[in-house]
Amino acid sequence: MESKKRAFFFTLLFAMVCMVMQAQSLQVEGTVISKSDGEPIIGATVLEKGTTNGTITDFDGKFVLSVNQGSEIVISYVGFKSQTLKAQGVLKVLLEEDSEVLQEVVVTGYTTQRKADLTGSVAVVSTESLKTNSDPDPMRAL
Question: For residue 62, what are the CA distances in angstroms to 29, 76, 93?
């Protein structure tokens, strides 16, 4: 009989510890939408502020992230102003475009640079010119 009481006590203690630990975290679910056109933003970054805990939005602009109670989350995406919000159960985030941040970008074979900072020649290669080239290796055809 004593062992049953002891097992019940430890089970009850374990359940209470689990509830306390659960109360310290919060699952945030939300949707990130562009303010200008109302379309979902795919691949927006959602981070718990001050940590590396984060996720990205899916095809519908939705995300789920487990954060500490009372923390803030930062939502960001290229070309949009970042937002910092208090973590809540359900969020609908409207990101506003930040056209001042975007500049013309040139993608090179090994890095990305602003066009104004680029030193050297730049060429545009279309896929049509690659198709008409007789060399089967695309790198040599370039």
Answer: 7, 14, 10
8 A C-beta contact, residue 57 and residue 30: no
Q: Where in the chain is the domain with CATH 2.60.40.1120?
A: 2-95
Q: What is the mean pLDDT of residues 49-71?
A: 90
> Full-prediction pTM beyond 0.85?
no
Q: Which CATH architecture has domain 2-95?
A: Sandwich (2.60)
